[in-house]
User: What shape does this take?
Amino acid sequence: MTEITEGARLRFRKKLIDRAIDLLLMVFSVLMVLPLILLVSNAFKSPQEMLAWPPTIIPHAPTLANFKAVFGETPLLRWIGNSLLFSGLSTVCIVATSAFAGYVLGKFRFRTMNIFFALFLATAVVPFEVYMIPLYFQAQALGILNSVWGLLLGYLVMSFGIFLIRQNVIHAIPDELLEAARIDGAGELWIFWRIVLPLLRGALGALGVLAFFQAWTSFAWPMIVTTTREHYTIEVGLALFQTGFTVDLGRLSAASAAVLIPSITLFVLLRRNFVQGVATTGLKE
Amino acid sequence: MISTQRLEDRTVSTRSLARAALIGTALGAGLFGSLSAAGAQTITVWSGYPEMAPFYEHVAQGLKATHPGLNVKVEAIALREHEKRIALGLTSGEAGATVIELSGSTVRRYLENDLLPSAPADVSAFVKDPKNFDSFFTNDASKDGVVYGMPLFRGQASLFYNTDMFAKAGLTHPPKTMDEYTDYAAKLTLRDATGHPTVSGWSLRLSGGGQGIAEKFWTILFEYGGSVLEPAANGKWKANYANEAGRKTLKQYLDNVYTRKTVTVEMPADAEAFERGQTAMFIRESWVISDIAAKAPDLKYATAPLPIGSIGLPTNLYVKGEGKDAKAAWDYVMATNSPENLVWLLDKVGWLPNRGGVDYSAVTKAQPAFASFVDYPQGYKFFTLPSIAPIDEIMTRLAAQLAAAYSNPALAGNDAAIDAFLKSAADETNTILSREGLLAD
Amino acid sequence: MLQRKRWIFAMLAILPTLAIFAWVRLYPIADTLRLSLQKWDMLSKNKPFVGLANFRELMGDHLFQDALVNTTIIAFGVLIITIPTALVLAALIYHRTRSRFAGFYETAVFIPYVVSLVPAAMAWKWIFDAKLGPLNVLLSMFGIAPQAWLFNPVLSVVCIIVLCSWQALGYAVLIYIVGFKSLPVSLFEAAKLDGASGPQSFWYVSVPMLKPITLYVSVVTLISGFNVYAQAFVLASDAQGAPGRQVRVLVLDMLENSFRNYRVGYAASEAVVLLAIVLVLTLIQFSLLREKGRS
Assistant: This one.
């Protein structure tokens, strides 16, 4: 009898703690997205309300004027298009190079391959900013500044991607499977295409999402590669929009809010892939 | 046409006739294509002042009659980014025909490296004609007597003051000496119950990136008889602010910020604050007049010349490109200096045109605020940024030093510390000069 | 024979990636090292060799020192905030995995990591604004005087740390959650049998077990902290109304030296210093990991 009440008490206690944790997490989650909510709210404010003290969280008289002005004055859609194209191409390149290199490094244990792997790994920690300037002069020599190709030059390969795929190849593809195919007379390319790639679909998808957002949020490189308005990526366009003579915070917020839409939509759509992608990062070290 | 003649000369089978006709069409199309290309130049105007964009569009509109195929793209972005894209764009040599707006001091480095061509003969003659330009502007657009650019407008500073606030503070005329500036600032500052300023008496440039802080410092330094860089013989330079003038200037800043608390670093500043009634006065270029007209048309204000003189920073137009495109670009550059366009520039944008002999009175009469910029007193002096390669580095580094000094309360009222600060900043300036072989002994 | 065929396939398959890699990674890195020993103004054709002169000058350059100090403070500041917060958050979210809000928690914490930086920084710039921002309103409710967040030399660095931590947190939390999921359940059950409370088993079981993950996340966070640039750029942009104090960071100083002061060689020497710092940090991580493996 006492044991039962004791158990009920414990269960109740546990429930209480869980509710408290939920509350805490809920508050924290809201705090995390609050800056973005405020941004969206500012986008709907009139210039007068923008200057009001104390600031309002929900606009009293929401207006679309900021959005109209922004879309009228800046090639915002073009910038978003540039970013999408650049990020998309970068994703394709990184996924392709990583798939080939990762597979070869994972399953072909020749000494040369080990040297290559060491090479990839050694440069993985070198920050992009370190060699950005020489890379810029390479883009210049090729005459691809102010183009999506110039942007792409900095985002063709990803050391981490190669590493990620190699880990996956080692863990997810049994040698026996490959050997059996070889005994059946399958060519190496056929094996790669028909056996390896399908098995890597999950990992490649995850890598693709990582690569996409890496390019989407890149800033320093597009900042130096693109110098004409029509070639800006969305990050650069917004940053320079801000440095105009007098800043109109309402319009800037409208532009920023408009840009949040594609990023958040993409993220929510690809969340599963993303979580898996991050999940497989660096944990097997 | 060529292909038709050929056809007449020969008897040909239908097959080769068809072929010839095809070739002819292709030729004709090619000819037509090149013809239309001759009439359809695209030039790009790179500007570092977003508010200048309408002016460049206006000039392009005016050229429609004489250059029907001319396509002008105007790309005006913030000055710092503008200078960066020139550094990157000129060296890459793939920009096509571009009209580039730059100050004579910044352009120096490009001229030294032969990255910009000299002006064609007609432009050169126009620029050298003393009826058009004072020699100050001609020299600024030239190097070793060769004209490279077309003078367009200049940055010149005056005091902008809110007449309503002046009246409320019982002030009837603008400040005439630098001491008066501080006194006025103290009287004009509005404070809340705790004594914290809510409306600054005199808005000073105290923070921000780039070299703006150093330029504004130089303007006040100049009123005290100093300068950031002083020329010596044979094109060498020397820092000239680790002295009494420098000390007075920095003291004035610190006095206003820390002792009299007429302004704080974080207060809204500059044109924006002035337009919103958050500051009573500030020193700025003439473009503010048009900015006020657009954004705060009901603001009651006036302008006044500075005590001794002002910065006079000429901005010129240069052309990068070859062949017909370059020709069209220079035509465009000439058109910017037509009297009609210059009057439009002054009226609508507010930057001061450099060309003389043009009747600007229609604008200056309608907008009395321009008077202090155009009809300045006898003996009013001007300074400009020297045309030396490391000028931007010197100014940017000085700006970083000054920003630190302005936010350092320990310097306020401590002459020895101020002198030490100025000495170390000037040493840095001289080190850069010396590294580039430009330091006077 | 078969071996040889496989070798040829392997080489052919890896060659394109290798070539691209050499072209856009190895060569530019080598070029940075070379440029750091030269004096080059970007415009002229000759690049005289100056030995270690650039590095000697860096030693006495107060802007560089300023940048180095700021960057280090920011990187470690972000680390100190992010790691403990992420660990606790991840533990709580893992504990509530079966809650129907778990997906929301994960998404909310992770979203700052994927939104474009400029909009995010914009939002924070407004929050920190001394005159219009909600942060000072909030503080005044507790009787704290308004602060000049973006102007005060100390607070402006704090602002950047807050902004960077806000962005870095999601990644760290996610990695930790995965870490928690990979811990053997039997361990927790054993701890429970021994009478350990939730916080106790977190502290005595989870934290030590997650040490490799902590090391990994630390290095990733530190390295990206040392590359901070856009945040500093946007928070102090040259807007006329309220410029904000420019917090000088290494990448900003580097870009200013190359593209504003036309000193590419000098900027390259800064890049080499950055590289050295990152390499040392990575080496420390590896040695810490190895130590762990031995004990």
